[in-house]
Specification:
The complex is a heterodimer of chains A (369) and B (297). Chain A has helices spanning 30-38, 56-69, 78-89, 103-141, 148-159, 163-185, 194-232, 235-241, 246-285, 289-299, 302-329, 334-365; strands at residues 6-12, 15-24, 45-54, 72-74. Chain A is an alpha/beta fold. Chain A has two domains: 6-89, 2-Layer Sandwich (Transcription Regulator spoIIAA); 128-361, no CATH class. The longest helix of chain A is centred in the last third of the chain and has 40 residues, at 246-285. Chain A is elongated. Chain B is of the alpha/beta class and 297 residues long. Chain B has a domain at 2-26 and 51-79 and 97-107 and 186-282: P-loop containing nucleotide triphosphate hydrolases (Rossmann fold), CATH 3.40.50.300. In chain B, strand 1 and strand 2 (42-52) form a beta hairpin. The longest helix of chain B is centred in the last third of the chain and has 18 residues, at 200-217. Mean pLDDT of chain B is 81; it is low at 284-297. Classes of the chains: A alpha/beta (369), B alpha/beta (297). Chain A binds chain B through residues 1-2, 4, 23, 25-31, 33-35, 37, 53, 55-57, 60-61, 64, 79, 82-83, 86-87, 90-99, 332-333, 335, and chain B through 5, 8-9, 12, 16-18, 20, 22-23, 106, 119, 122, 124-125, 128, 131, 135, 137-139, 141-142, 144-153, 158-159, 161-164, 166, 184-185, 216-218.
Amino acid sequence: MREWADFTVQEAGGRVTLKLEGPLLVSTIGVLDRKLREFGEPVQAVDLSATGDIDTVGAWTVWRFADEHKARITGTTEQAEKLIETVSANASDAPIEPERLPVLKRATYDTGEKVVHFGHGLIRLIGFLGSMIAGSGRLIVHPARFRYRALVRQFELVGVTALPIIGLMSFLIGIVIAQQGAAQLRQFGAEIYTINLTGRLSMRELGVLMTAIMVAGRSGSAFAAQIGTMKLTEEIDAMRTIGVSPMEALVIPRVMAAVLMMPLLGFYSAVIAIIGGAFIADLTLGIPFLTFLTRIQEVVPLYDLWVGLIKAPVFGLIVALAGCYQGMQVKGNSEEVGLRTTKAVVQAIFMVIVLDAFFAVFFTEVGWG
Amino acid sequence: MSGEDDELREEVLEEARDDVVEHFHGEYPIVIEGLRNSFGEQVIHEHLSLKVRRGEILGVVGGSGTGKSVLMRSIIGLQIPDEGTIEVFGKNTIGAEAGEESSVRSRWGVLFQGGALFSTLTVAENVEVPLKQFYPELGAELRHEIARYKVVMSGLPEDAASKYPSELSGGMRKRAGLARALALDPELLFLDEPTAGLDPIGAANFDSLTRELTNILGLTVFLITHDLDTLYAICDRVAVLADGQVIAVGTIPELLKTDHPWIQEYFNGPRSRAARATSQAGGKRGKSVDNTAGGKA
């Protein structure tokens, strides 16, 4: 059972004395504190002679009450006196939360801030793209400085190791398109057009788009996290001091790897998606596997392939650029790495989808519909 | 009046824990015996024993990788040892149920190396977290007041109370961490390299703050450090960790008499001699609990 601090009121010769009892500790003060706050009558003295152990919370409660009622504190032990002196010396009424503007003001303020930040971010991103192009220019002039090993390593990380997951994803997407497409087309008795649907959609849109999203999640995030961590550990500063340009050593190999790998991955993805479609068509629609593939050659125009292959490197550039740019923006603490990584992925996927919409309109307008 | 009182008391009791115990009045708040810690093949501690005296500042030193932090984590229950017993305030902490532990947990404060402040809360709110957790019956007003004076007591300026950890410098973050560690008026304080990463002036200030608070609050301090100045300035005794054990405990003059090569190298190295000279010149050698009668100040 827990012992609680308490008090009794004693009156002698017109002087009111509050006699506190029990230990004055953070664990026993809960009741006493509330009672003292409600105590409204005048008090001349607070007597501590009947109290036990005391800590700073007890001392604070006593001092605050005595200060409020202009009462004297009597019967203190040496320890109590020391503690009361300490807490009174450290008393403060500073706010414990930062000041907050009223909602309306804050909303407008935040909106303005966001807009300005967005503008600055855009300018910096364009600046980053510019310095990357300048860096590439220098590499063309001094090709010996180019880091082939880093590039090949990134080829492996961005391209080769992504094959299984992109293959599996594309295969399943091919199945879904063919199966769902067939379900709708069956209503017109046009099941055979499932082949057109699967083939053209995979080649033009889905192969590249899904691959870009996957690469953003796999490699874009990795770029941001790697470069961000290197920034935190001052590796990048160390590079600069010994004359190695981080743009040449880190950014360009990654961006090049993404730009060169994306068309290959996108094409691979489209092919696997078509195989997935053929597989499900063979199983459920009664279209033989090989017939499906032969029909693809007839119904998918060659320019569909070009549409996919033209978009892919652009998407790769965006994904790698967003990753490297956000990584380079990391400063301060490790929390920022996580924040910037998320930002890199979201930004990359968003920009890829926006650009894909532009491409769709553009290619239709030029007659590649 | 008394009816009202009873009502209030009942209301408060409803929220309060019922496992609160009195302050510890024994001689050794921490007793470790036969401790063994290992990570896979690597054995960190083997047959490690250590007793910490009430009211002392015990400095814990040892080379990198000798398991100073692991020892602290074992005592506060973050690392489950393979073997051995650890008694804190006379209670075995190993294998205690989460509920049982709270009576011990509310009586120690821990300052982690980086401060380990909750980043979404202001400094004052950080200090309030343990108060809310262990003493929910305290009124909000009192809690705010406690948070404020603890912040000031830890040597932070008043306006730091409403700041977020990310707005503070490294040294201020340590002080804020100290304020949170002291939130519950603990009897036992664990400090993990409190002066690491501070400039010499900041470190010296932190040392004297530790000493001052220890004297005022009657704390027992378990202090892990690499800082020789801290050892000379404020530690009553020093425990040396090596070869998985505590190879020696005592005041620095006592340690100097032992002939373990690591201790000799540590305390007789050029840095140590410089620290000793400073501390002697300043005349602020920590009081020794061991020889209170003859210890020269």
